């Protein structure tokens, strides 16, 4: 399904889209361009997970991340979320940190760790003010940047959205939004739906998977 949202309210649109029927096909894909800010992607993939579906969602926005060795912001933070039923939900950006964390450090008059951002000349910086004039670093250096580049290119390819420094209208609402998001819903009943290895790995690691702690907290609060 492909939708031109025509600057409609992204949160309202996507909340309705994830309520649609995903069970008749092995894989369903929704591609949307030109909606306003939709919030965090894990909200939508979690809804699919609660229905027993796998959810994979990613998108783009205004440029905030520089290519290693450069000072020009070219990609967004490349948000991505993956849910595996019933309660695993990964929600993260592929930048080394978020712009919000930089602003928080500036307000607290704190330094930021080296490696998170660069200044306006492309040099690593601990100064949050200079980081805001420069840009965020990708996770994993060039490998991370290429992963972000391909994901955002796929968003543009499937949705028809703008790409790179041409994306507008998310943080700066004076321009109409021209970004995009892609949601992939997978019905495990058409596949193995095999959880045993996940449980074995959980026991080996001795940790909760992403999203599971929050899922437990929510369950306890609604009792």
Automatic annotation (TrEMBL):
InterPro entries xref list: Mal/L-sulf/L-lact_DH-like_NADP, Mal/L-sulfo/L-lacto_DH-like_sf, Malate/L-lactate_DH-like
Oxidoreductase found in the keyword field: yes
Pfam families, sorted: Ldh_2
UniProt GO molecular function: oxidoreductase activity
Record's keyword annotation contains Oxidoreductase: yes
Family label: Belongs to the LDH2/MDH2 oxidoreductase family.
Name of the protein this chain belongs to: Malate/L-lactate dehydrogenase
Organism: Saccharolobus islandicus (strain REY15A)
């Amino acid at each position: 399904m492909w939708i031109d949202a025509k600057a409609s309210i992204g949160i309202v649109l996507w909340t309705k889209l994830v309520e649609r029927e995903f069970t008749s096909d092995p894989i369903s894909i929704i591609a949307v361009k030109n909606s306003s800010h939709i919030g965090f992607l894990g909200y939508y993939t979690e809804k699919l997970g609660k229905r027993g579906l796998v959810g994979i969602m990613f998108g783009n926005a205004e440029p905030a991340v520089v290519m290693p060795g450069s000072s020009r912001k070219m990609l967004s933070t490349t948000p991505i979320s993956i849910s595996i039923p019933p309660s695993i939900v990964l929600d993260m950006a592929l930048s080394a940190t978020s712009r919000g964390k930089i602003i928080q450090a500036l307000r607290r008059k704190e330094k930021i760790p080296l490696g998170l951002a660069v200044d306006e000349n492309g040099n690593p910086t601990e100064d949050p003010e200079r980081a805001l004039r420069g840009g965020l670093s990708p996770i994993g250096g060039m490998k991370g940047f290429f992963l972000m580049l391909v994901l955002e290119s796929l968003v543009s390819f499937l949705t028809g959205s703008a790409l790179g420094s041409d994306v507008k209208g998310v943080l700066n609402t004076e321009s109409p939004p021209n970004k995009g998001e892609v949601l992939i819903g997978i019905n495990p009943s058409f596949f193995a739906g095999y959880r045993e290895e996940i449980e074995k790995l959980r026991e080996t690691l001795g940790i909760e998977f992403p999203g599971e702690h929050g899922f437990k907290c929510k369950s306890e609060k609604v009792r």
